[in-house]
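User: Structure tokens for both sequences below?

Assistant:
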Amino acid sequence: MPEERKTCFVVMGFGEKVDFQTGRKLNLDASYHNMIKPTVEEAGLRCIRADEIVHSGVIDVPMYEQLLKADVVIADLSTYNPNAFYELGVRHALRPFSTIVIAEDKLNYPFDVNHIVIRRYKHLGNDIGVGDARKFSAEMKEALRVILEKQNNDSPVYEFLNGLTPPEMAQLAADVAAQAAQTRQPSAPAPEADGVTLRVLLREADEARRAGEFLVAKRLLTKAREVMKPKGPDDPRQEDPYIIQQLALVTYKSKQPTPKQALEEARDLLETLNPATSNDTETLGLWGAVHKRLWEQTKDAPGDEAARHLDQAVRGYERGFYLRNDYYNGINLAYVLNIRAKRAASPEEAVADFVQARRVCREVVGICDEWLKESETPAEDCGEEEMVKYNESKYWVLATLAEAYVRLGDEERAQDCLRRAYELAPAEWMKNSTEEQLSNLRQLLADPPLKYIKADAV
């Protein structure tokens, strides 16, 4: 009977997460699938992340079991993920050795972990640079080899509490396995065909979203939310913001049962993430998007509901832009400022919003140009999923540049950016979204908000 492969459990977030210290959005799936998992498997270990565990009931049981039993744990602390810090602490308390800590190179880690060896890698936001990934992979393979052969203490708990005895692994592992069997919560990673893991649900939801099948994506993300939802009032965990953000996105894009009802449902989802005080720029951008569209639904209705939605859209996009300095929040901030300028109650308010919109557009052009300059095209042998994500990101950058140039009155550059964007063969809904936004913007700019703002100043 062949010897069972050793196991490596990876502690980290999943999906796209915002690093609140820097305002950057990092795709943690890119770190895992393009760098960590391939490296671990090339080193001969079986690699598991929490979203790859098939389980029933509470995820905590198999998660704690992996923290106890895994031959190696890799903890990625990128984005200052509190769950990752906590799970790293649990591992350090349970096992004196075989734990590796990593983080992307811009993480400012706190005092309590500054005496732990943290291996750094460079993250580009949407992906991992090929050269950096290869270098980091070689370092990780060597670290895995050494940690499995020598088993030196790497836990500060056992380092500083000299003489502390770790749990009796054989008996404890048997007790944990018995408990898992009794509660019918299998903890071993299973092939995707044997059950639906969180990873499968999120991947299929992402594919449905890209294809414009928003109701399908909504159903899958609703199921993913149930998997990760706290079980009862005594469960201290919080819902994962990434799942709620994605669910809100596909909910409002589904336009079902009506566009306004879909938007209101998405708004209610986002309210669980406290957008009024949140520093999560993804939440703020979605909050702005929902209220921008709610304004469109209510702009001709009597009363001040439309004005309230427009102010909320400005507030969401503005906070998101100045926290993160990103093109998405920036270009949409400029757009809603133009709308508000046209509907302003006084000349001073109109001019203020009008001028700010132009200034933001100039900043957005610089941000997009920098992205195109710095973003590294995936290697020819990269996976199809990686190339699709890169092309989608590049499409939105070029479409944003086109909108910014329209706002700044440079139609020639705008058309060139659109041509380059459409060469990437975007999904039909993406192209339609761009065309609709540009059409609406041109209508706004065709009629400046006040007679003393000259048309050639647009």
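Moving on to the next sequence.
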Amino acid sequence: MKLVSFEVTTVLGRFVRAGVVLESAEQNRILDLNAAYAWQLAEEGEAKAKTLANAILPSQMLGIIETGERSLDAALGLLEQFNSYAQAAGKRTDFPLGLNEARLVFEISEVVLKAPFQPASFRDFFAFEQHVATGYRLRNESIPDTWYKIPVYYKGNHRSIIGPEDTLTWPSYTQKLDYELELGCIIGKSGRDLTPEQAKRHIFGYTLVNDFSARDIQKHEMQCRLGPAKAKDFATAIGPCIVTRDELPDITSMRLQGHINGQLLSQGNMADCHFSFEEMISHWSQGETIYAGDLIASGTVGTGCGLEHGTWLAPGDEITLSADGIGELRNRIAEPKAQMNLLDAFPGKSSKLSPTT
């Protein structure tokens, strides 16, 4: 299934709802999962259809992920039922109406796709050797042996997630803004001290990730052996959908591409990932609990960012990332509203150690 979060405008205001993509020969439509399930239960004679639907198939994507297999089973049943309606309806829109005559099906052109979910946490790995080697070579260093032994990662800001078609606000403190082409993996249930084989059963699905980076401030942060923090935390784009694990049972040969203003700049393949997602999850889970709704990313594929090409993003640029079976994640860069230098933010600060220390 391709799961999405979409914003719809009603007489009561704007609401973001969880949906599934219906695919017909003519065009794609989105089914409101929670509303459709409440309608289905009511049709079956359930007296508390809305209450039960809210529990089993919530209106928000994070709730669906946390509910797990029962939620997915209900969504799959609805997908099959409404796909049949879609095939019969063709270009017409005579789908059933839900409770209180609420619409259940929307044309994609009628809604705004949002980030498919808001992660409970975000960790970004560093798992493509070509990308890692390029970064170390630019610093006149070699890849440390430890990189080949453990899948390392940093913790990103899960509260700065943006979605498909969202415009990125230019961070005021950077002049070297970069994109990063990555694959994301969503955790579907909690676990701890998992083996790679066990970790496979904890994967909910996959999405695209654009791990935007402020390369100039990142350079300074990494000199202090901490971070990245301000270099990354301003925004991460994900989307356009979540493709559930059953639809992508084998991602080892998945192709990924990145275009800037329509020009192909990045090409990668998950076959080149040094660690599998199962190995990343296993490593992360040692001594700590992973939770449903957590997001991890693969790290940047080889050639997957401007740093590797010696070029940076500019205001007005459009970045389009794509992956087999998932689709396209597209974002545009806004004009900077102001400029500042973080290194000059605290003038007069100097060492408090004595010269003889």
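User: Anything stand out in the second?

Assistant: Residues 69-89 form the longest helix (21 residues).
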